[in-house]
Write the structure tokens for this entry.
Amino acid sequence: MPFCPDTQRGNSVDDMGNSCVDKDRETYLSALGALGESGIDYMLGGAFAIYHYTQWWRNTHDIDVYLVKEDVPIAVRALDAAGFHDIGEQAEGDNQWIYHAARESMIVDVIWRFANLENYITRDWLRRAPVGHFLGIDVKFMPLEETIWIKAFVINRHRCDWPDVMRVIRAQCSNLDWDRLLDLLDEHWLLLAGLIDVFDWQHPDSVGCIPERIREELIARRRQYWASPPKGIEREHLLDPWIHYRADEYAVWRNE
């Protein structure tokens, strides 16, 4: 999908109008229609969720559909019947967390797990997912806190999702459940602290939107961490390892 500089702002994906999204409109609707008719519960993530929350459009080469693991076989059959065929792993280990299907030039990524394999998508995500508009139909979008949680780990050679997170925080800071977000990150709370540090540097005019109690909690945890850091722990492998070690030809093919 080409970049659309004239459609970076709007109230929903429907507002993109005569944009590059229109080129693949029928293909998108065919994929989502097939999934809907299959009876499974799913939600959109990726660029379309970021647009939903921020009204800022960025280039994308696919549509990310999130669901629970047990519904993956149903989704695969539904997409195949609609002409979206398996294009195989794009990196070693993909089949542990993502399924790639394509029709013409459009890719549907069916995702049921974090890329670092740490967590699965659960039905709680789907219960909390807000409903919005996408090309004239109602769809669920990944919840705010889960969007930040899953993207916090994507920092690697070919891709970094932190710019998406910065935009989400700036646009939705007052709507975020910061306590829930802290709970979701759990032992990886330092990633949230790092995100906030970058956000403060990038958007000093928005520093005040982050609750003071969250900042104080993170400061207290940092002091304790510095005083007694965990022993024998390495976490580099959690930064989206399959993409981190992806061969260059895959990155070029997927424009990463």
Summary: The radius of gyration is 19 Å. The CA atoms of residues 35 and 75 lie 6 Å apart. The first strand starts at residue 43 and ends at 44.
